[in-house]
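Pipeline run #58 for the internal structure catalog. This entry was flagged by the ingest filter as a single-chain record with no existing model, so it goes straight to prediction. Upstream metadata was stripped on purpose; only the residue string is passed forward. Reviewer on rotation: M.T. Logging verbosity set to normal.
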Amino acid sequence: MENTISVEQMRKSDAYTIEHFVESKELMYRAAMGVFESYKEWTGKSIAIVVGGGNNGGDGYALAGILKEKNIGSVIIKVSEKMSEDGKYYSEIASDLGVVIEEFREETDLRKYDIIVDCILGTGFVGEVRGKAKDAIEAINKSSAYVISVDINSGMNGDTGEASTAVKSDLTVSIGYFKKGLFTEAAKEYIKEKVNVNIGIVLV
């Protein structure tokens, strides 16, 4: 098993790296590029990127921009009006590039997409998923799309792999370092395949 770390160590390492070495926007871009490079069959597919209000959602906005620059279309479907500062930065880039940004609604049909990228909830999430996030996770799981979760499957506890409701992914692209929860027995229910992307996080 590859080197795994706790959610808390990842949080501290991320903050340390941003303070001393690499600005947060650059890390977000590297994360999105890592997701893009981890999957080879984007072209010719209908793609939905489902985003939440935190930095995990920001990764999704950045990914949409990268795809657009490579002449690959996608639709961003947001489950929250909130945005992190870096998420807002990349959402504006995506919007300027012409990426369609929609709200997740009760009538939103995710079954029409070939690929769904899950950027709803990150490793900092604990507890029970509620509201639009829960509805979106359930809609993703009902689709027959190829599902890519960014960093962790939304709804999953990063330390234990446990969840009451979580996205079931075909591929989970961990960012920085694998979190311990991705390798637990509980996580096997949700993850078919996983890879890790090194974005230059300095461990502390």
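catalog note: Residues 24-38 form the longest helix (15 residues).
catalog note: The chain has a mean pLDDT of 97.
status: ready for reviewer M.T.
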